[in-house]
């Protein structure tokens, strides 16, 4: 009788990991949790990644002359993206190995003119960023992160609400006693976007209001406090990027500590794995590229998103430093011979919502990293459907390296859908497939991932880089 006829993937278990590797997994997850607490926005992630890369021997790309196998270089894209590379032994025009993840997450952004007073409260008006269920973002402790850039270019970093002793911030909600009408509304309409206003204070300014005529003393008090703490004025908000994010710390989830609950697993869980994997390499055959981009949650737009020419321009610099006679053809060959894992999270099976998925093609928590051949919605619309040839190569890489993996599809046919950076990578004439960590409660203020899957992201990306 023939053996090995059955596909054993989508059947992995946490208990199958040996003792030594379980220890490695747990240590990796501790590092991940503390990194998450320090990197709650794309700017903070890029900053922390730069520190990590420098500690691990990476040098600024622009400072490098000619590149040789084993060289480690990085660039930062406008403080919000990262490209880190370890130069391979092969001719670079044979292509590079890319693991691309995004480091932006859904949140509440401050509007350009955010500060106002109403009913003796001071508030920030917000414009939510990414696909959120708005009702989830009320009565959640929020912290504020970002930068204010002054007219002379001075940049002031803002991070408040994370440390013990810091104040917290919040969007209020209506008490159930008076919510008779609200409770009849659809979930999508019960909390309108314009009601996501962050409460800042209630105390009046007690001194003399000298320079401005205003009756809004609570707002004026907040402006004074902001001026004392950050040396900023109301007009400076116009050149600021301040994000309100959940103030929760990343924590083990459950008595058995088999999962991690955190804000922003999507997609820092894959970005962290990609960063750790590229740094673990010595002299790979193919040049390894860890690409961390911004703006995925709003369509990969802008010059820090995947649709920007940043990737091609940076590759041009790398190719120029790696080959004898640079030409556009050599750059084009390098790009079109490249292979990419679009490292992004996928939806895991949630027993609370079994009817939204199809059980043979949904990944489970702690079943290994999810390989998603296609995403899209309503008949694969908008999907980058990975080629069977690439899927075959990937199976071999993962099986040979003992990576626990499972197949993933984004829910039921006609059930909804979504996309990743994969489609934009594919547009560059690159072989690409989505490979990422399955999550529960994706895009909520507190998402859940399994420890086996968090660790397998690293192991999978490293095995791919070492192809
Ligand atoms: Mn994502
Ligand atoms: Mn997302």
Question: What can you tell me about this protein's structure?
Answer:
The chain is of the alpha/beta class and 467 residues long. Helix content is 26%, strand content 24%. The chain contains ten helices and 22 strands. The protein has helices spanning 19-38, 42-55, 187-190, 217-230, 265-279, 310-322, 328-336, 388-400, 422-426, 451-465, and strands spanning 59-60, 72-77, 81-86, 97-102, 107-118, 121-129, 142-149, 155-160, 198-201, 240-246, 251-253, 259-262, 288-293, 339-342, 346-347, 369-372, 376-377, 405-408, 417-418, 431-436, 438-440, 447-450. It has a nine-stranded mixed beta sheet, sandwiched between helices. Strands 8-7-10-5-6-9 form a six-stranded antiparallel beta sheet, covered by helices on one side. Helix 1 crosses helix 10, helix 5 packs across helix 10 and helix 6 (310-322) packs across helix 7 (328-336). It is globular and about 80 Å long. Bound molecules: manganese (II) ion (2 copies). One manganese (II) ion binds at residues 266, 297, 443.
What count of helical segments does DSSP give? 10
**Could you say what the CATH architecture of the largest domain is?**
3-Layer(aba) Sandwich
N- to C-terminal distance: 33 Å
- Give a count of the beta strands, DSSP E runs of length 2 or more: 22
Counting structural domains, the number is: 2
Average of the residue pLDDT scores? 96
Shape: globular
Radius of gyration: 24 Å
Distinct ligand kinds: manganese (II) ion
How does the major sheet shape up? 9 strands, mixed
Q: According to CATH, what is the topology of the largest domain?
A: Aminopeptidase
